Amino acid sequence: MKSDSSLSTIVKALEEVGAFVEEVRDSEVYFRVTRENVKAAARALYSLGAYLKTCAGVDERELSGLFAVYYIFGLDDHGVDAVLRVLVPQDDPWTVSVVPDVPAADWCELEVRDLLGIDFRGRLTKRLVLPEDWPEGVYPLRKEFKYDEKPPRVLREELSEEVGIPVGPYHPALHEPEYFELYVEGERVVDVAYRGFHVHRGIEKLAESQRFTYKQVPFLAERICGICGFVHSSCYVMAVEKAAGIVVPERAEFIRSIVLEVERLHSHLLWLGVAAHLLGYDAGFMHAWRIREQVMVLAEYLTGSRKTYGINLIGGVRKDINTEKIDKVLKTITDLRKEFTELVKAMLAVPQIKSRASGTGVLTKAEARALSVVGPVARASGLYRDVRKDYPYLAYKRVSFKVPLYTEGDNLARLLVRVDEVFESIEIIKQLIDMLPGGSVVVEEYDIPSGRRAVAAIEAPRGEDVHFIITGVGRPYRWRVRAPTYQNIPALRAMLRGTPLADAPLTIASIDPCFSCTDRVTVLDVRSGRKSFIRLKQGV
Amino acid sequence: MLYSVAAAVLSLALAPVYDGLERKIRAAIHTRIGPPILQTWYDILKLFTKEIVVPVGGAWYTLVTALELLALIASSAILYHISSYGLGHATLLESVAFIVLTSVVATLAIVRAVSQNNVFSVVGGFREFSLMLSAEPFLAVSFLLLASGAGSLASKSIATAVLAVSSYVISGRVPYDIAEAEPELASGVNIELAGPLLGLATISSVLKKLVSATLTALALISFVGLSGLSSLTAVVIATPVVWLVHTVVSTILGRSRVDLAIRFLYVLLFFLSSTLVLSFGLGL
Amino acid sequence: MSVAKILEIALRTGRVTRRYPYEPPLLTPEFRGAVKIDPSKCWGCGACVKVCPPNALTLKPAGKEATLEYFVGRCIFCGMCAEVCPAKAIEVTKEFELSATSLEDLKSRVIHRLARCSICGAPIWTEAELRTVVKSSPIAEEYYLVCPKCRKERFAKAAMLRLGAGSE
Amino acid sequence: MSSVNIAKALRAIKKSVWVYHLNSGSCNACDIEVLDALTPYFDVERFGIKLVGSPRHADVILFTGPVTRESLPKVVKTIKAMPRPRLILVLGSCGVGGGIWWDTYSTLGGFKKLEEILRENGVEVDRVVYVPGCPVRPEAIIYGMLLLLGLVEQKSKRVEVVASEG
């Protein structure tokens, strides 16, 4: 993938703006850049076609006496990641923001500001990370902060003034505490404010605490999200293996890929059921989940648990697959294919589903590109983006499959992308089972040197999941997770504007939001400050 | 008269059972077992054992809920009274009283919804209003037409179709349950209710379904031309059958959106009504 | 009408409901439920405590005893403890009907008596662990009943003596 | 109304249990299993259990998550809105014992701690049943619910054994 010429183009472009190469590892190039030059460097990368994967603040004072901010850019055309490392002195912690050129950095810069106390110049900053009652000047990701410190709490009455139609924080459509405030005119949404990050559990900090070791973190990573947890644990172990140069047995890679696809099947079926429920078609919900139940049973049979599978280890997997399991997999996916085909036909024949899903929650291709959306949301807006193709990992380089692409960008297109992906996943599992190599499933002997860095990405059911790791002694020094929903939520604002109120829940659900993924470390308020008043007119 | 009262009382007592049956059948279409047939009764009885929480609005509010229930009982009583001699022979007074009562029920429900200090409830109330505006006039016209006994078989059939559709709409089922649409409105008009008041509202919603099913059953039985006790019995028996059809229809459809619902209803009902007028004009 | 297709599917499928608790649950042979510690096998070595990600297993010394506590209410059912247990004392069961009205009912404890250092009297390892060690490689009591600190001191003293550092 | 006749209340709801699902910052897995319990294979509607959209309608709250700092005020508000008796089924290892993040800076560490805060704010909880599981299986949710209603016996018992003398 990585050709020397494309590498030298990138290096040359960045050296022109004062950055220099720090390290080249596998498909990652690390650049050092001063805080004054970071904006120009980011601009240079953007003009080469890069997109921002995420940024991360690291307290490197123990290593170099400085703070560091990493900007991770993906150049998917070249299959290369370019990482900018900006060093920030601890007694004068500020850097220049890249947001004016790279809007996608908005959230992660604010996260760095609030969790590490680094100020960003040249952009609007506001205190919004962490709960409102969190004291000033306490930064959880600084090393001197203990992971189990609990600053005094003030129980405040919240959301007393309700200006819009509150959807949440407890709302039957979401099943997760999130808060959207919809500003409506009649029954049409004119704007939306998002108040999220209720599920901040301090996972990144916990992983670098004394309580955890490299081997235990996969179980923590799995609990970032109860739907796509295996993606997170796989991505974590992949990042560690990459950093430490551990070669995983091929059979383990295949098993991981099979389980990842099983997880995608259950996730998409779950989503389809929820979408049907939101459209008032409970029969669709029940039948989708009835079909899904067999996938859950299969997952338990393969891994030992219906969810949070717990089979990932650094160096491989804990459970092997035998012939009985292979038979069960093949039988389940054959039945699934048949039943799913029928169900989709029946569902799409329901007039309300077609009429309410099509033309609502539209995200154009241009908007999708500008907002760097990922996964089915991107593919439904005509953006060809799939980590399994762009950065092939595990066993995906060995199988052939199609990436479903729709151009309408509406709720129906996102539904159809997921439907197509179910069929593709079934095909992928079949191929993987056919080619399953022999051998062991885990390497026991390995060594993880400290101070290594790596970026790993996996195509989760919801889109690209990125993990960035800096190794430490016995445990990660810094572990940064960027879940797909993190990237997709900002697109909701574009999608919801002009959508009928009745379709707002479906539109919110159509990005298949997973707030627990997004919220691991942050609390965020994008309330625009603009208070449009509601006019509740009669429905017509 | 006595028979009509007996039929009305029987149907009122059976309505929650029909509702339980509806849930059972819906469950069967979902490939699951579902609740016991008496489940709706259990729910109502439980709600009445709960403490009374009077929402903002207080006594006025309780009054509206009780009045709504009374109006529903009265309208079903009228229907069973009419049943004893067939829809074609209803007096003008009876027909008008029925129409007025149905509008009163709808109006009270809307009043109840919008008088609450809750956005969801208010939105739900407005939706109910728009829905009522689109269904109620057609219900009235077709009912009065059938009650007058005039017109040919063709025009009667069309009027029955209009009545069947508009009475389905007032039953508050999918796709027209948009007033209490759970996903976006968190049970909408009922959100602020609790305990016995919610119990009353639950009975009201069951009775709405009863009135809707009885209405269609009555119109259909009228074609057969029965009268007296046999007509009454036929209506009482046909009611759960219509209820069953309503159940299946509501299970295989999704929820509509207020604008789509109204557009669809207007198109359908206007089409049917113009055919009706045409058939009258041509004297078919 | 394909809208009605769902009826056909439902008719063909029938009812799939498991009448749990009157019918057995939908368990597979691989299911990992709560773990069970066999007190007759446990040494109290604490390997499981070290590996347990949520700290559902704890080993706390108190006076003459050390208590290995398993709090199933925090367990994540990963089964890593059973994998690392050197005594094979931990078994992963299929138990999932764990509900309880109080948190105390969710705790199970194995109490180990602590052996004391014959020199300084400080608690060292559990008696069960010492027994196992002695069984596998017999050593004299004067060695195994001495805590590492005292052993180090004793060794230092002996070495000094050998070096002729004297008799102060 | 400080004392509530729990036995009477439980009898009243034995055949009709309306539940409200309250997520205090869980990972979603338990929440998905709650939904799963409604679907054909488990079908809790056969016990008269129904998911409702407002805490005012609820007989029982299904509580998941370790209670994050951010969700705390809203959780308190929601439980307050529930009429007495307040019956709560705490689902999953997070709610029961705080889960894998029981001691981090941004979680409270489970329902026990929340109960203290609720009491400080004058919100009484009448009965709690803890259901461990990570995530809880749908069957475990059913079992917990039946235990709350007093229809099954509790299996878990506090065990304390002295290790064998060898």
Gist?
The complex is a heterotetramer of chains A (540), B (284), C (168) and D (166). By secondary structure, chain B is mostly helical. Helix content of chain B is 77%, strand content 0%.
Explain what this protein looks like in three dimensions:
The complex is a heterotetramer of chains A (540), B (284), C (168) and D (166). Chain A is α+β, with helices and mostly antiparallel strands and 540 residues long. Chain A contains 18 helices and 15 strands. Chain A folds into two domains: 4-121, 2-Layer Sandwich (Beta Polymerase, domain 2); 203-518, Orthogonal Bundle (Cytochrome-c3 Hydrogenase, chain B), CATH 1.10.645.10. Chain A has helices spanning 4-16, 38-47, 61-64, 106-116, 203-207, 217-222, 229-244, 250-278, 282-303, 323-348, 351-357, 365-370, 375-380, 387-390, 411-435, 484-496, 504-510, 515-518, and strands spanning 20-25, 28-33, 51-60, 66-75, 80-89, 94-96, 119-121, 165-167, 179-185, 188-195, 312-313, 316-317, 453-460, 463-471, 476-482. In chain A, strands 1-2-5-4-3 form a five-stranded mixed beta sheet. A three-stranded antiparallel beta sheet of chain A has the order 8-9-10. A three-stranded antiparallel beta sheet of chain A has the order 13-14-15. The mean pLDDT of chain B is 84. Helix content of chain B is 77%, strand content 0%. Chain B is globular, with a radius of gyration of 19 Å. Chain C has one domain (27-162): Alpha-Beta Plaits, CATH 3.30.70.20. Chain C is built from six helices and six strands; from the N terminus they run αβαββαβββααα. In chain C, the strands form two sheets. In chain C, strands 2-3-5-6 form a four-stranded antiparallel beta sheet. In chain C, β5 (107-116) and β6 form a beta hairpin. The N and C termini of chain C lie far apart (104 Å). The relative contact order of chain C is 0.14. Classes of the chains: A alpha+beta (540), B mainly alpha (284), C alpha+beta (168), D alpha/beta (166). The interface between A and D is large, with 58 and 47 residues.
CATH topology of chain C: Alpha-Beta Plaits
Q: Helix count of chain D, per DSSP?
A: 6
The computed structural class of chain D is alpha/beta
Radius of gyration of chain C: 26 Å
Q: Please write the string of helix (H) and strand (E) elements of chain C.
A: HEHEEHEEEHHH
- pLDDT under 50 segments of chain D (min length 5)? none
Total number of strands of chain C: 6
Please write the string of helix (H) and strand (E) elements of chain D. HEHEEHEHHEHE
In terms of structural class, how would the helical and strand content of chain C be classed?
A: alpha+beta
Mean pLDDT of chain D: 88
Can you summarize the main beta sheet of chain C? Answer: 4 strands, antiparallel
Please list the strands of the largest sheet of chain C in the order they lie side by side: 2-3-5-6
CATH class of chain C: Alpha Beta
Number of domains of chain C: 1
* Domain count of chain D: 1
Low-confidence stretches of chain C: none
How many extended strands of chain D? Answer: 6
| Major protein interface | A-D, 58 and 47 residues
CATH architecture of chain D: 3-Layer(aba) Sandwich
